[in-house]
Specification:
Layout: E1 4-8, H1 10-20, E2 27-31, H2 38-47, H3 53-62, H4 67-74, H5 87-99, H6 102-112, E3 118-121, E4 128-133, E5 138-140, H7 142-146, E6 156-162, H8 169-176, E7 180-183, H9 188-197, H10 201-207, E8 211-215, H11 230-241, E9 248-252, H12 258-265, E10 285-289, H13 302-311, H14 315-321
Parallel strand pairs: 1-2, 1-7, 2-3, 7-8, 8-9, 9-10
Antiparallel strand pairs: 4-5, 4-6
Helix pairs in contact: 1-3, 1-13, 5-6, 8-10, 9-11
């Protein structure tokens, strides 16, 4: 596989990049700029900075520097005036002020971390994410959607950005030159779909000749994807990407221990159910595969997922992974 583009943000994209970088250097991450929580939110509000949090995670994922430098970028201050801030976030924001460009700041941070591949902000415009709930209420801000103060049982009907944003040329060029485009996994409405809301991104993906893969989440999330099944995730992606664009959808078929599921149930999270009957008329290939890790947290296994993604262009190789 020549060029791989990963579209998303947050922990899910970190996992995908961490796995793929072991096998290829031709990686580009296109990262959401809708983040507004924690350290990122403060820097955004007080300094007018573009959100560095998801960018920082992707840089660390692609870093080939020593462990200490990676830990430094991820280090979070625990007290004092800098409490809650990540060192990496502060550095990227400082570089933005010094260079006068967020894109240049990301490039310089990438040089410091000796990354292999590219990390590209989906837009350099300042945007705010909004969600419209089934009762008509509109929630402002990624952080308020991600960590709901409202009734999390209410379904999200749509999400949108204000003001409208234009895709960065680097993001569009990366998609244009891709051989494989990976969408997700990650928080559906706050990490993945915000990229598709940026003008030019969905169109570029639709026009691309690359194989297009959606990696479905392992667990539902209260306030965002409560009680969602696989078909609900795919339907949401297709709402903003378009129908008949995806070539493959990867879903996890491995069951975690009941004890672990009970732990997540306390957080109102559940394993995403595969409702295969809903996909009979779809043109993409549904790939159920055991891509969950064996750790104490329910996460994708970065290596298994990476090897499956690399094989996804060849059907005979994909079949080897199904329900292994």
């Amino acid at each position: 596989m020549k060029n791989i583009v990963v579209v998303g943000g947050g922990t899910g994209t970190f996992t995908v990049l961490s796995g793929l970088k072991k096998y290829t250097r031709n990686l580009a991450a296109i990262v959401s700029m809708a983040d507004s929580g924690g350290s990122t939110g403060i820097l955004k509000d007080e300094l007018g900075a573009l959100p560095p949090g998801d960018i920082r995670r992707c840089l660390v994922a692609l870093s080939n520097s020593d462990q200490l430098l990676r830990e430094l970028f991820s280090y979070r201050f625990e007290n004092g005036g800098l409490e809650g801030h990540s060192f990496g976030n502060l550095l990227i924001t400082a570089l933005e002020k010094i260079t006068g460009s967020f894109e240049k700041a990301v490039e310089k941070a990438g040089e410091i971390l000796a990354i292999e591949g590219k990390v590209i902000p989906v837009t350099t415009g300042k945007v705010e994410l909004y969600a419209r709930l089934e009762n008509g209420r509109i929630i402002k801000g990624e952080a308020n959607i991600d960590d709901p103060k409202h009734d999390g049982h209410l379904k999200i009907i749509e999400v949108f950005l204000r003001p409208n944003a234009r895709a960065s040329k680097k993001a569009e060029d990366a998609i244009k030159g891709a051989d494989l485009i990976v969408i997700g996994p990650g928080d559906l409405y706050t990490s993945v779909i915000p990229n598709l809301l940026v003008k030019g991104i969905s169109r570029a993906i639709r026009r691309s000749r690359a194989k297009k893969v959606y990696v479905c989440n392992l667990m539902t999330k209260f306030g965002e994807t409560h009680k969602y099944k696989t078909s609900d995730f795919v339907e949401a992606i297709e709402k903003y990407l378009g129908k008949n664009v995806l070539d493959y959808v990867i879903v996890n078929s491995k069951k975690p221990p009941k004890k672990l599921l009970l732990k997540y149930k306390k957080e109102k999270k559940a394993l995403v159910e595969i409702d295969e009957e809903k996909f009979k008329d779809k043109k993409f290939l549904l790939i159920p595969a055991k891509v969950m890790s064996n750790k104490n947290l329910i996460r994708h296994d970065s290596d298994k997922l990476a090897r499956l993604l690399l094989a996804v262009g060849e059907l005979e190789n994909v079949l080897k992974f199904i329900n292994r």
